[in-house]
Task: structure prediction
Amino acid sequence: MSNQATNIPRRRFLQTAASAAGAAVMAPMFIPASALGRDGSVAPSERVVVGGIGIGRRGGYDLGCFLEQKDVQFVAVADIKRKRQGEVKAIVDKHYGTDSCETYRDFRDVLDRSDIDAVLIATGPNWHATAAMTAAKAGKDMYCEKPVTKNISQSLILAETMRRTGRVFQAGTQRRNLPHFAFACELARTGKLGKLQKVYAHPAGMQALMSGWLVPETEPEQDVVDWNMYLGPAAWRPYNAKLLDGFNFEKGGGFVGAFNGGGVLEWGSHCVDLCQWAVGDCPPPVEYDAPKDGQLVARYENGTELIFRETGWIPLGSCPVRFEGEDGWVEAGDSGKLVLSSPELLAGRKVEEIGGYPATFHVRDFLDCVKTRAQTKGNADAACNAHIACHAANIALLLDRQVKYDNATHSFLNDEQANRLRSEALREPWRL
Amino acid sequence: MTRLTIQRFTCSTIVCGALAMAAVSTFAFDGATTSPEKEHEFLAVLRSDAQGAEKAMACKNLAIYGSSDAVPDLAKLLPDPQLSSWARIALEAIPGDASDAALRKAVDTLEGQLLVGTINSIGVRRDALAVEALTGKLQHADHEVASAAAVALGQIANDAAVKSLRAVLTGSNATVRSAVAEGCVLCAERLASDGHAKVATEIYDEVRKSDVPLQRIIEATRGSILARGQDGIPLLMETFQSDERKLIQLALGTVREFPGNEIDKVLATELSQTTPERAALLIQAMADRPETVVLSAILHAAEEGDKQVRLSAVEALRRVGDDSCLATLLKIASGDDSDLAEKARTTLARLPGQRVDASIVAMLPKADESNHALLLQLVGERRIDAVPEVMKALDSSAASVRTAALVALGETVSLDKLPVLISQMVAPKHAEDAAVAQQAPRRPA
Result:
């Protein structure tokens, strides 16, 4: 039984010193190949070389978006499950018609490769922040699935680490690059709805789920499933196959009796993120009421309310948001549709022409920013604020009372219990 | 009520920037909030022969309800490979000297991964009294232990920690040196944030000149540029002119966060001197400084020169252009290069600036045939209310102009003026316009 993190010699990172790329810079995709004197192909030196970390269900969708891009060369995948390594390799090799996608059990082997520019992190949420920070320190840009962090502290460290290391970070909040959500947020942000009064987010479940210490089962061989690596930064517990569902394991962790953190993080990291965009990406709310009648009300410094609610939505598909101002409102969901208080808000456009999916736009935004070094739509600061709002709401849920958050000190006011829930120790040897 | 100074909120690396976090905060700690009853309940579990699962949950609860009374029992679990991480969840969270002392004591006895974890927790808590012990671990034979100590010292970042790290930056093992450099950069970030830019710059520069991985040099270079303030401009430009792609990328990112407007003038000059490949990227960075960008430099880049640079400039004008760019963009949009023309048309449709719409309308009467159609197209795409001016274009002898006018009317005509469009559908002055007119109506604005 493995009960300690793998003791791998710290050969890491040193090899990243040598850059194979030399002084060549990558041209942004908005410059067509013809302008570079070529016949339409993307030169190898201008491809973003990408590796994958933990590509499962959601990651498979992301992988497809990456493979669609002509300026991507996907070269490697790391996964603690041998079966998944093979599945991803098969997809990638089939796409390129080669046998060249390398597989690894330890994601740090991907980070060691100096030819890799960026990584797609699509592990379970237990690993997101730790893998992202490790990748940043290894000099990789990253597209990281959500929820990105497990607590408030990780959210803040994420933002600062990306800034300090100069890395390009894109949270998997693809709705920031979907035109109809962007349109709705722009209406709110630019005052078209009048002074904003309420923004609504659908958390898709405000109850806590358990993923604690279950009955021990026979642990598979490390080569089949590396349980120790799967646990990673999460506190140790024995192998149990039920916990291998990485999508839910330790989501928004850190809570007594709520190791899964609940649904606030699952969709909140999307819907609250959109609400944050609608309010101009300002600091997160400063007050979070106790949940009541299926909703939780939070308030921004200027009095605008952020309301987590389960019901009362116009049927516009999953992940709906609604923004209400003094002069109008708009509601949007995953159907790609918008409903507005007045057609005047469309300014002559039709809902159909504004458009919705595919989510490829978000991957494209990331790749463009890898080349130009601009801020992505789902950058680390934006993700930090949205996740803090979710974590603070979770803390109000857990404590079942109002909590007040100070954005200057990033602490709860006169609330020792809430403050202790801002962070959680990582299992050895992991650190942020 | 006991007043405790909490120096260990875990975001010790957040020392500057938009988050402006106060890493050291003091607040009142009301012992009653720890709930002694619950603490006793969970301590009883730890003191019993309960199974690991129960003790793990007890640790988790003690993170919220535990006080210094719980520390001795939690500390006993630190050598336990299964429960050590659970115990540290509580020990990291419980305020006060007792937790610090317990973690420091464990450093003397633990080895391997458990020692690494304990050192990590000390770093998170920023225990100033641990500097001596951590300094001793910098020479540990286990490189993971030495690296953990280096990063923890960087998180503590007091004078003693800085001194310890600087002393081993050049002498430590290559693997550990990367962590020492990380610790140095963390110290420098905190010093810079606290107003000690000079010493921060010294540390950054020591890291830059050390034999450490490129990523550490990148971090130190960014810090050194920003800590220097306006005096950092030469280093920023030197970095942009580097032969190393990752340093060029760093410069492009740092340009976007550099304060003041002096840098914008320097960038404008650089634009005319650098290679086309870099110029195309530099323009994008310049345009991400909309408050201070030298617009004339981007406009000039759009007008002539290397095609990729022109494309980048035309693209950038979507964000920072204004009505002063109209003539240039119209000329490019009517030019022979289809790539540039298409991009210019897209930029014209989105060009910001309050006076752009009025300027387009003012140009209509004087426009030549090629520009006239393009201007009418822009009236439609930008949803400009200019029905009288568009109506006049229906009398043009050029079919392309009349077609553009009809489409523009379809995009912009309001309900009260809809009959104008309908009359063109049923009785056009030019018979060939009827088909276009019939396709033009959209949802009336």
Remarks:
- Chain A touches chain B through 80 residues (CB under 8 Å).
- Chain A has a mean pLDDT of 89.
- The two ends of chain A are 26 Å apart (CA to CA).
- Residues 49 and 323 of chain A are 39 Å apart (CA to CA).
